[in-house]
């Protein structure tokens, strides 16, 4: 069940921009070059997750032909492993969704300075302890 959470959590991370990314070098590039590098990276992510999803789907389809049952959950094993193609295809869709938005607006779905639950203005007004 943890794999289900991890795969769908990663897709959520891509959509909201909290998925791990190293963009220190990319942020130092000139704007036109940065645009192409970001789009290339997003399409690489989409391609990778599409390949993983396709290979996972092939595995699950072959596994569905068997009578194997998971030892712990006592479910058919293909149901347990279905998270790989489903989560990967969802992540691929999210990469393409972010790429589409970035292409038209130039905005990525995250704000590096914003941390959910932390009010920066309120922290600045608090006296030092």
Structure description:
The chain has helices at residues 2-16, 31-64, 77-81, 83-105, 120-125. By secondary structure, the protein is mainly α. It has one domain. Helix 1 (2-16) packs parallel to helix 4 (83-105) and helix 2 (31-64) runs antiparallel to helix 4. The longest helix is centred in the middle third of the chain and has 34 residues, at 31-64. The N and C termini lie far apart (44 Å). The model has no long low-confidence stretch (mean pLDDT 84).
Strand content: under 5%
Instruction: Work out the helicity level.
Output: 55-70%
Q: How many domains, as an integer? A: 1
Number of helices: 5
Q: Helix/strand-derived class?
A: mainly alpha
The topology string of helices and strands comes to HHHHH
End-to-end CA span: 44 Å
Mean pLDDT across the residues is 84
Largest beta-sheet details: none
Work out the radius of gyration.
Answer: 20 Å
Q: How many beta strands in the DSSP annotation?
A: 0
Could you list the spans in which at least 5 consecutive residues all have pLDDT below 50?
A: none
Give a short summary of the structure.
This protein has 129 residues and is mainly alpha-helical.
Q: How would the blueprint of this fold be written?
A:
Elements: H1 2-16, H2 31-64, H3 77-81, H4 83-105, H5 120-125
Helix pairs in contact: 1-4, 2-4
Question: Which keywords apply here?
Answer:
129 residues; mainly alpha; 5 helices; flat
């Amino acid at each position: 069940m943890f794999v289900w959470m991890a795969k769908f959590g990663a897709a959520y991370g891509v959509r909201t921009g909290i998925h791990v990314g190293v963009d220190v070098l990319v942020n130092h590039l000139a704007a036109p070059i940065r645009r192409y590098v970001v789009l290339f990276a997003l399409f690489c992510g989409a391609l990778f997750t599409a390949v993983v999803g396709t290979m996972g789907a092939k595995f699950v389809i072959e596994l569905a032909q068997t009578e194997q049952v998971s030892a712990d959950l006592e479910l058919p094993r293909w149901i347990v492993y279905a998270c790989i193609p489903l989560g990967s295809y969802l992540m691929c869709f999210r990469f393409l969704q972010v790429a589409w938005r970035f292409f038209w607006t130039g905005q990525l779905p995250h704000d590096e300075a914003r941390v959910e639950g932390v009010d920066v203005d309120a922290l600045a007004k608090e006296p030092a302890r």
